[in-house]
What we know:
CATH architecture of the largest domain: 6 Propeller
Oligomer: single chain
Structural class: mainly beta
Amino acid sequence: MPLSAGDKLGPYEILAPIGAGGMGEVYKARDTKLDRDVAIKVLPLAFAQDPERLARFGREAKVLASLNHPNIAAIYGVEEHALVMELVEGVEPKGPMAFDEAWKIASQIASALEYAHDKNIVHRDLKPDNIKITPDGVVKLLDFGLAKAFTEQKETSGNADQSPTLTIGATEVGVILGTAAYMSPEQAKGKSVDKRADIWAFGVVLYELLTGERLFKGEDVPDTLAQVLTKEPSFDRVPIKARRLLKRCLQKDRTLRLGAISDARWMIEEGEAPVLAPAQQRRAWRFMVAATVGIALIATSIALAFVVFRSQPPGRELMNLSIPLPPGSPSFLVLSPDARRLAIVMLRERDMLLYLRSLDSPEYRPLPGTDGARMPFWSPDSRFIGFFAEGKLKTIPAAGGPATTLCGETGIGQGGTWNRAGVILFASENGKLRRVRAAGGECSPLALEDEGARTVVPEFLPDGNRFFYTTQAGVYLAALDNSKARKVLNDYSSVIYAPPSSGQRLAHLLFLRETTLLAQPFDPNKLEPVGDPVALAQQASSSSSSPQVGASITSNGTLVYLVNLHRQQQLTWLDRSGKELGRLGQPGTLRGVALSADGNTAAFGRFERPEYPAIWLYNIGRGSESRFASSDSYRSAPVWSPEGNRIAYSAGARLSLPIFVKDASGSGPEEALLRAGTNPRTPSDWSRDGKFLIYTENDPKTQADIWYLPDPGNPDRKPVKFLGTNAVESQAQLSPDGRWLAYTSSKSAGGPEVNIRPFPSGQGLWKVSVNGGREPRWSRNGKELFYLAGSSGTVGLMAVAVKADGSSLQLSAPSRLFEFQALIAVSSQNVFAYSPHPDGKRFLVSVQEAGNPAVNVITNWRKLLPAGTR
């Protein structure tokens, strides 16, 4: 399907052709949503018209999208029979090269292959054409388009009818996938392929880099394949230091070949290849150990790898490791300054706790006393952890023990930092900075020039006086003893300060731009950025819903960061059994959903900018979506009027959100229902008779309270507090008859629960959920109440039958209708991941795409930086 400049594929505008090959044509394109250039590989017409091949392509695209490594070009998604990829600017490696240069390239190739092999993915088409060297000297492997999970491979029968061909894309056994000159002998014979085929191709590529000559170069494809099968390579032209490695990679009998690319990488890092034990002996040893120790040893080996990384000398090459997380959903991560322990907040069912993992042990240990923990940070001596919970700033010994409350009225907390003088600087939910001694004392405000800015995630510099902080306008630098501040970055992200390494003059600021982790060179004397930032990793994540980077670094050059934490959502119709009935609109970083009373229009949030969600509408009858409220400021929590002709929502700068209402057509001005005050407010429901607007006010003193505004059309109206305790009460929903208010409360020990109170008196209480619940929604007839059980990740949609008996209620036991993948927001923000249709037979659900959050580790991360700035 040839394309021309100006053509569109979904949100991608074609700019120019890049090249073509057997697996399709490649174009440079512009992502009009994210405002970035990408590469798009369009499948050949024969491929696109074959349902079997398309199904295989779809399956493999999901596998490929899971690859997240600095030496692998990222896969962004699939669009109309095309693969959307990272656009890599660079050149193909050409030999002959100096030994040191070729060795560095080989090390990075090996690192990328090791990462992919650990995920059971084989490249199968490794060759110089699929390798790019960026202007910064970073290797990028391209076109994992032939990669397949190991489990999909089959052995040939040996039948002559299944002899090798060079046909692309077929799934039958005996079909060759790859390029003849770089194929392994088993690949050329049409046999099953595993990671050792990549090891062979790695050796062929390295030989070509060192000598400048292709190892197998027949007159045509059959002659080339014959050489692969019969020719014994000569290594006379290869430097002596590389010969042993190449001999081990280029064994025609794959049982004699290197068993793992990690062995090749280790040999490269040692400079000269040492004598290794035979591969068969290593495999037999590994098998015996695995048979006796099993999975426990695998976990221990990961932990021991951390110990090695922690103590490695700074001159070693960079290494990558991805470790799985325990069951649950991560939200915040930070590595201790001594690089010995990882602190991470996990949501498991109804519990949100701080977990610790000592890096010489595979176990994640919950830290008692950290219920509801948020945004942890370490003391400089790695002995204590600061965190926010229950609207308070607390500290707790990392070894265990009771938590100490230092300050109250923090709301959900927006980050802290701890200097060597024992001063903690932290941000409350209202975006104001305060300071307190770690030993206790007064919690005093810290004045800054711009008092109106919502200030979050402070980060001390090593001097313990100056600090960075983030606002929606960018990253600023200030000092404890000076209220003046100046901007250093334009991005809405926290920063991690990395001092200059030995012998270097530049420091670095690590921050997020969308999902790319960047390192900005920074002059520590002038205190200003220098040059352009360098990409360290793709698919990195901020922590939870804050701009805090989900990453941490140590003085020895180890970088840990979260990946796949924030995945896209898709509005999806599900019936009462969870069966998918259809999808609405484009996937994206969505935020909640609310159906109009007639079920014909859906209102939802979409992040068009990292810091600001906009409100969008989807007209179900017309099958079209449009922006309702722009993303020039924070707009959230859309609530429909009972007639469906107006929408109330929060809008502003999050510091003190007012509530506005606007015509649902999108025309006309915004009308302020509640003007800006001292606390943020977000609507949650509008009564069926139109007489009450229910909303949540986030008060630092009482966390979150439920209020209502009588007669929203009356300019003399006065808001009334319905419920205010020292817990979070939010997500309030009125029954259709207006007599009962269901809401979420964090007052119960162990996590949020769904309760019902009479409205408007509030006198009386019925607990609805069992073992945790949130996001209540009434059925149209008021005979059922739905809610979600579980935290981010897999949640269950629960149903409870409700029967009013005078001034009392009769509630059935909750029943689980179905489960789905969801991203759960902080309850005080009144974001709902689902909305029941008026017919009671289906639900519009914001389903989160599949993916496994993990912790990635990069050792000696400065090796990714250009020379002279490391």
